Amino acid sequence: MQKAVVKLWTIVENLQKNLNMFDNLSDKEKLIYLAGVFEGEGSFGIWNNKIDRKNKTIKKYINISIQMTDEDIIKKFSDFFGGPYQNYKPRNHQNKIVYSWKTKGKKALDILYQIMPYLGKRRQEKFNNLLLEYNSRENKDKEYVCLKVAWENGFKRNGST
Length: 161
Hints:
Blueprint: H1 2-19, H2 27-41, E1 42-52, E2 57-68, H3 71-81, E3 85-88, E4 98-104, H4 105-115, H5 121-141, H6 148-152
Antiparallel strand pairs: 1-2, 2-4, 3-4
Protein backbone atom coordinates (compact mmCIF):
# COMPACT_ATOMS: atom_id res chain seq x y z
CA MET A 1 0.00 0.00 0.00
CA GLN A 2 2.79 2.42 0.91
CA LYS A 3 4.59 1.77 -2.43
CA ALA A 4 1.38 2.56 -4.31
CA VAL A 5 1.01 5.89 -2.47
CA VAL A 6 4.65 6.82 -3.18
CA LYS A 7 4.20 5.90 -6.86
CA LEU A 8 0.99 7.92 -7.10
CA TRP A 9 2.71 10.90 -5.44
CA THR A 10 5.58 10.66 -7.97
CA ILE A 11 3.08 10.68 -10.84
CA VAL A 12 1.35 13.76 -9.39
CA GLU A 13 4.69 15.59 -9.01
CA ASN A 14 5.65 14.78 -12.62
CA LEU A 15 2.29 16.05 -13.87
CA GLN A 16 2.75 19.30 -11.97
CA LYS A 17 6.21 19.76 -13.51
CA ASN A 18 4.82 19.15 -17.00
CA LEU A 19 1.99 21.64 -16.47
CA ASN A 20 4.57 24.34 -15.74
CA MET A 21 6.84 23.32 -18.60
CA PHE A 22 5.84 26.34 -20.72
CA ASP A 23 7.28 28.67 -18.09
CA ASN A 24 10.67 26.96 -18.44
CA LEU A 25 10.87 27.48 -22.21
CA SER A 26 13.04 30.18 -23.77
CA ASP A 27 11.26 33.11 -25.42
CA LYS A 28 11.99 31.64 -28.86
CA GLU A 29 10.54 28.27 -27.83
CA LYS A 30 7.45 30.00 -26.43
CA LEU A 31 7.07 31.92 -29.70
CA ILE A 32 7.29 28.70 -31.72
CA TYR A 33 4.75 26.99 -29.44
CA LEU A 34 2.31 29.90 -29.70
CA ALA A 35 2.79 30.07 -33.48
CA GLY A 36 1.79 26.41 -33.66
CA VAL A 37 -1.35 27.05 -31.65
CA PHE A 38 -2.11 30.10 -33.80
CA GLU A 39 -1.64 28.01 -36.95
CA GLY A 40 -4.44 25.73 -35.83
CA GLU A 41 -6.79 28.08 -34.01
CA GLY A 42 -5.92 31.68 -34.92
CA SER A 43 -7.03 34.03 -37.64
CA PHE A 44 -5.92 37.31 -39.15
CA GLY A 45 -7.29 39.72 -41.68
CA ILE A 46 -7.76 43.32 -42.63
CA TRP A 47 -10.84 45.17 -41.45
CA ASN A 48 -12.34 48.57 -42.17
CA ASN A 49 -11.88 50.90 -39.26
CA LYS A 50 -13.38 54.16 -40.42
CA ILE A 51 -15.01 55.30 -43.63
CA ASP A 52 -14.65 59.00 -44.46
CA ARG A 53 -17.39 59.59 -47.03
CA LYS A 54 -16.38 63.21 -47.63
CA ASN A 55 -12.82 62.37 -48.67
CA LYS A 56 -13.80 58.94 -50.03
CA THR A 57 -11.17 57.16 -47.98
CA ILE A 58 -11.26 54.00 -45.95
CA LYS A 59 -8.92 53.48 -43.04
CA LYS A 60 -8.05 49.84 -42.53
CA TYR A 61 -6.18 47.88 -39.94
CA ILE A 62 -4.86 44.38 -39.57
CA ASN A 63 -6.41 42.25 -36.85
CA ILE A 64 -5.25 38.97 -35.33
CA SER A 65 -7.23 36.83 -32.94
CA ILE A 66 -7.52 33.42 -31.41
CA GLN A 67 -10.52 31.86 -29.69
CA MET A 68 -10.91 28.59 -27.83
CA THR A 69 -12.34 27.05 -24.71
CA ASP A 70 -8.90 26.59 -23.09
CA GLU A 71 -8.34 29.64 -20.90
CA ASP A 72 -4.79 28.63 -19.99
CA ILE A 73 -3.70 28.72 -23.64
CA ILE A 74 -5.37 32.10 -24.30
CA LYS A 75 -3.69 33.44 -21.15
CA LYS A 76 -0.32 32.40 -22.61
CA PHE A 77 -1.00 34.64 -25.63
CA SER A 78 -1.99 37.51 -23.35
CA ASP A 79 1.06 37.07 -21.12
CA PHE A 80 3.55 36.66 -23.97
CA PHE A 81 2.29 39.24 -26.48
CA GLY A 82 0.48 41.56 -24.09
CA GLY A 83 -3.04 42.80 -24.01
CA PRO A 84 -6.13 41.49 -22.27
CA TYR A 85 -8.22 38.49 -23.12
CA GLN A 86 -11.96 38.11 -22.79
CA ASN A 87 -14.45 35.38 -22.16
CA TYR A 88 -17.83 34.89 -23.77
CA LYS A 89 -20.50 33.10 -21.87
CA PRO A 90 -22.33 30.52 -23.94
CA ARG A 91 -25.87 31.24 -25.09
CA ASN A 92 -26.73 27.66 -24.33
CA HIS A 93 -25.92 26.31 -20.86
CA GLN A 94 -24.61 23.10 -22.44
CA ASN A 95 -21.77 24.93 -24.24
CA LYS A 96 -18.45 25.91 -22.70
CA ILE A 97 -17.15 29.42 -22.09
CA VAL A 98 -15.08 30.68 -25.04
CA TYR A 99 -11.92 32.70 -24.38
CA SER A 100 -10.57 35.19 -26.90
CA TRP A 101 -7.40 37.22 -27.32
CA LYS A 102 -6.94 39.75 -30.11
CA THR A 103 -4.96 42.78 -31.11
CA LYS A 104 -4.82 45.08 -34.11
CA GLY A 105 -2.77 47.66 -35.96
CA LYS A 106 1.00 47.90 -35.69
CA LYS A 107 1.10 45.52 -32.72
CA ALA A 108 -0.70 42.87 -34.78
CA LEU A 109 1.76 43.38 -37.64
CA ASP A 110 4.70 43.04 -35.27
CA ILE A 111 3.32 39.79 -33.84
CA LEU A 112 2.60 38.36 -37.30
CA TYR A 113 6.10 39.28 -38.39
CA GLN A 114 7.49 37.34 -35.38
CA ILE A 115 5.42 34.18 -35.89
CA MET A 116 5.41 34.13 -39.71
CA PRO A 117 8.54 31.93 -40.09
CA TYR A 118 6.84 29.25 -37.97
CA LEU A 119 3.48 29.25 -39.75
CA GLY A 120 2.59 26.94 -42.61
CA LYS A 121 3.02 27.83 -46.24
CA ARG A 122 -0.71 28.50 -46.75
CA ARG A 123 -0.81 31.12 -43.99
CA GLN A 124 2.41 32.73 -45.17
CA GLU A 125 1.01 33.00 -48.69
CA LYS A 126 -2.29 34.41 -47.39
CA PHE A 127 -0.47 37.07 -45.41
CA ASN A 128 1.83 38.04 -48.25
CA ASN A 129 -1.12 38.23 -50.65
CA LEU A 130 -3.03 40.45 -48.25
CA LEU A 131 -0.10 42.82 -47.99
CA LEU A 132 0.37 42.93 -51.75
CA GLU A 133 -3.34 43.33 -52.47
CA TYR A 134 -3.86 46.19 -50.07
CA ASN A 135 -0.66 47.90 -51.08
CA SER A 136 -1.82 47.96 -54.71
CA ARG A 137 -5.33 49.09 -53.67
CA GLU A 138 -3.81 52.01 -51.81
CA ASN A 139 -2.17 53.24 -55.01
CA LYS A 140 -5.14 52.46 -57.26
CA ASP A 141 -8.07 53.65 -55.15
CA LYS A 142 -6.25 56.29 -53.09
CA GLU A 143 -7.32 54.54 -49.91
CA TYR A 144 -5.33 55.13 -46.78
CA VAL A 145 -4.11 51.74 -45.65
CA CYS A 146 -2.11 51.44 -42.48
CA LEU A 147 -0.32 48.40 -43.91
CA LYS A 148 2.26 50.77 -45.31
CA VAL A 149 3.85 50.38 -41.88
CA ALA A 150 4.47 46.72 -42.70
CA TRP A 151 6.65 47.55 -45.67
CA GLU A 152 8.61 50.06 -43.63
CA ASN A 153 9.19 47.43 -40.93
CA GLY A 154 10.82 44.84 -43.12
CA PHE A 155 8.18 43.03 -45.17
CA LYS A 156 9.52 42.56 -48.68
CA ARG A 157 7.51 43.48 -51.77
CA ASN A 158 8.41 40.27 -53.58
CA GLY A 159 6.05 38.31 -51.35
CA SER A 160 8.61 36.77 -49.00
CA THR A 161 8.85 37.48 -45.33
